[in-house]
Amino acid sequence: MNIAQQELIGLRAEVEDSSNSDMKGLCGVVVDETRNMLVLADDADKEKRIPKGGSTFVFTVNRGVQVRVKGDMLVSRPEDRIKK
Fold first, then answer.
1. Is residue 84 in some structural domain?
2. Which residue, 27, 40, 78, 84, could crosslink 14 as a Cys pair with Cβ 3.0–4.6 Å?
3. Pairing relation of β-strands 12-18 and 27-33?
4. Of 65, 11, 78, 17, nearest to 41 (Cα)?
């Protein structure tokens, strides 16, 4: 599965590593995506904006399968990334 060509909104994600240590360990459901950011909503519906660049994400996809992705691979407009 090439996660970079999939829609990320609706997937559960965790920030496994980040150049900003405050971001490490944040998790939630992807509710929005821009060219450089993922917006995660946690269990309390608080939204956190996570920069894609410099971060490593673990996405939970079909039936609990976890996929690790370097955020640098995701940096682009979502509509352009999905077309590739």
1. no
2. 27
3. antiparallel
4. 11
User: CA 41, CA 32: separation in Å to the nearest integer?
Assistant: 9
CB-count exposure of residue 24 (10 Å: 0-12, 13-18, 19+): middle
Q: How many CB atoms lie within 10 A of CB 60?
A: 15
Distance in angstroms (rounded) separating the CA atoms of residues 41 and 48: 6
Domain containing 7 — which CATH number?
2.30.30.210
Could you give the number of structural domains in the chain?
1
pTM for this predicted structure: 0.91
pLDDT in tens, 1-30: 688 888 999 999 999 999 999 999 999 999
